[in-house]
Design a protein that fits this description.
Layout: H1 3-35, H2 43-54, E1 62-63, E2 66-67, H3 77-80, H4 83-91, H5 99-102, H6 113-127, H7 153-157, H8 182-192, H9 217-226, H10 237-246, E3 259-260, E4 263-264, H11 270-273, H12 276-287
Antiparallel strand pairs: 1-2, 3-4
Helix pairs in contact: 2-6, 4-6, 8-12, 9-10, 10-12
Amino acid sequence: MNKRQARHFAIISTGIAAAVFLALTVDSHRQFPKLTNAENITEEVKLGQNVWHKYNCINCHTLFGEGAYYAPDLTKITQHRGEAYLTAYMKDPSQFYDEQKHRRLMPKQNLSDDEIKNLISFLDWVSKVDNQGWPPRPILVTGASIPGTDMSAERQAQTIGQPKEAGQTPPGARPLSGQENPIALGERIFRSASPACNACHSIAPGVNMAGPTLAGLATRAEKTLASGEYKGKAKDVEGYIKESITHPSAHLVPGAMYSANGVSFMPNTYEKALTPEQLNQLTAYLASLK
């Protein structure tokens, strides 16, 4: 190839590449309204975006994998946690861990009720954007110890099978205050009951351990109740979750490998190990997992 042919080849190749790039750009812009659910951008969503920027949430969190990478990615947070959980957490994050032992993980921003509602609307819109699988996995923040306890995850796992009198505070948990949010208290019980729920169950989507992931539990419970195949006695989602805790063999998911001969592998001791109030708090937390 001589110099003239090389020059022509470079010009033609550049022109083709530019044309393809422009075509893809035009096609992307054509699809943006559909991919981003632009028709669902309400006034509350716009106000929620203003709240996101006002409090510099991106200084710690990420959306679509973009941000500070210090705290979890919130792209799909409203599909994993319900409005009740998010509202309680934004009102007072310190209820979900012990600042005296685990330092301040999330600052209390003193958001108003309207700001919290609008921010959740914004995050809910974000969660419905077709991000085509990006980021490829949840960005999780983990620590060496369980929030609200003195124990590491390994030490807490060793408490499985230890007897406990009804009404006693779960091992390692902070004393419960009646002024604290029941969802926050329920999350603490999830991590500190005996046996500890998080020793067998994850709340990350697709992460199955000794027991199935509890991500999306409330949604699955609702579908199970409406399926016609449900064998238990519960009438609503909260009742189904509480029944699953206290009587795990009442309904066994067909095909699941977490039972044998009609008996669930999950311990059936929680009805005695936890007080009715603690069961209600644990149920409230699990019901917030959409």
